[in-house]
Amino acid sequence: MPDETPQKPPIPVGARVCLVPEGKVAQVFRCEEQAGRYVVGLILEGTGEARTFVLTPEELSRRLQVLPWLAAAPPLPWDQVVAFVEALRMRLAYAFDPHYAVSVTQVDLLPHQVDAVYRHILPQPQVRFLLADDPGLGKTIMAGLVLKELKARGLVRTVLIVVPAHLLDQWQRELSEWFREDFTILNRTVMRNLLTDDFFARNPQVLVSMDFARQDEVRDLLARRSWDLLIVDEAHKFSAARYGNKVYKTKRYQLGEALARRATHVLLLTATPHKGDDEAYFLLLDLLQPRLFARAEDLKAAAKGNSLPFVLRRSKEQVTDLEGRPLFKKREVKTVGVTLTEAERRASSGSSKEASKMQPVLERLLALLWDAKTGEAWVETRLRSCCRWSYNILRNEADTRATLIEPKLKAAGWSDTQITRHTITSGTGNTPMAG
């Protein structure tokens, strides 16, 4: 009679294995042979996610690498045992020290920094947070504390930090000096010469310029990967605007959308989150919590009721040192009267006349800078520059814009009457509406 004794599974239940090529560690809770294949159940460490695989014997030996058990290993020398126990103690330090990262950082922390990280950010079940403190309050330090704490808990391995180009070296230096975290800067030179299939496996912590990353090629490269933690400095640059029922998204905002979808934890840093535009603020927070609010009005109502646990903003007047003394002097607003001299009065009167003279030209520019095909005004940036120009420069700009825009209006189907009415060729008139 054939031997019907059940075969011992090649991997015992309870064993720890490493998934290849993912590199994830898991514990086996099931390993059975069925029709020449093995059904293997795993629980991933860190996330607790359960997965089941059906593998051939060859795939089993190739995909699952059994990790050695301490109990099954030969006795270790005493110094190695001590080193192992010390490493385990440090790995679990966060469970016994509620402010673990504070003790390993190389910077003197202030109360508001510790408060933000340990009372507001880390208690979130998933860190998707907007930190909007005033400039100079140490948002970089707070981001570093969050990074260290999440790494200590085994929740973060791959990190992407997106910052303006002029801050790349500063972020790299401060993270190295203050938190002993090494980051690789991804730029065009690296893309051209060093980018290989295993680049991100060898460099799990990456710094990239916001404007470099927004390019389609780079954005798609970064968005193909999953990131444990995404940090964005100057996050207000991820801007979008709503005109009617249509949302116009900048390249930077599209970058934010692509990366936020691929990141488990997201930390946005900015000192100017709102800028007086409810819709832009609503779209920025939508990167963190998509569809949490249906309309900008709902978000505004929640903000008034302090119902935004994932947003924190403090002013300089609110922060103190370790002894409770204000770090910054209180701002005082006063109206100071000034008596003009006769020469200053004449100059002021001349400026008013010049402003009146320039108003119709500004109105004409406003008309000419309006895209008749899409109805999208890109006037704001241009007029900020216009305000610094002289009358003659403004007039020349208006003439140039008329030469460039009028053929486009005709190509879009506008009649000569419409063009005359909407482009204000005489230099006077009212601001047009698109279409």
The CATH topology annotation of the domain at 123-139 and 155-318 reads as Rossmann fold
CATH architecture descriptor of the domain at 123-139 and 155-318: 3-Layer(aba) Sandwich
Low-confidence runs of at least 5 consecutive residues: 371-381, 423-435
Helix content: 40-55%
What's the CATH superfamily of the domain at 123-139 and 155-318, by name?
Tandem AAA-ATPase domain
Tally of DSSP β-strands: 14
Strand order of the largest sheet: 8-9-7-10-13-6-14
Q: How many strands, which pairing sense, and closed or not: the largest β-sheet?
A: 7 strands, parallel
Q: Report the top-level CATH class of the domain at 123-139 and 155-318.
A: Alpha Beta
Category from helices, strands and their pairing: alpha/beta
Cα Rg: 30 Å
Q: What overall form do the CA principal axes indicate? A: globular
Give the overall pLDDT as a whole number: 80
- Tally of helical segments: 18
Task: Summarize the SSE layout with pairings.
Blueprint: E1 16-19, E2 25-34, E3 37-44, E4 50-55, H1 57-63, E5 64-66, H2 78-91, H3 93-96, H4 100-104, H5 111-121, E6 128-131, H6 139-152, E7 159-163, H7 168-179, E8 184-186, H8 188-193, H9 199-202, E9 205-209, H10 210-213, H11 216-223, E10 227-232, E11 240-243, E12 246-249, H12 251-261, E13 263-269, H13 278-286, H14 296-304, E14 311-312, H15 342-368, H16 379-386, H17 391-411, H18 416-423
Parallel strand pairs: 6-13, 6-14, 7-9, 7-10, 8-9, 10-13
Antiparallel strand pairs: 1-2, 1-5, 2-3, 3-4, 11-12
Helix pairs in contact: 5-6, 6-7, 11-12, 13-14, 15-17
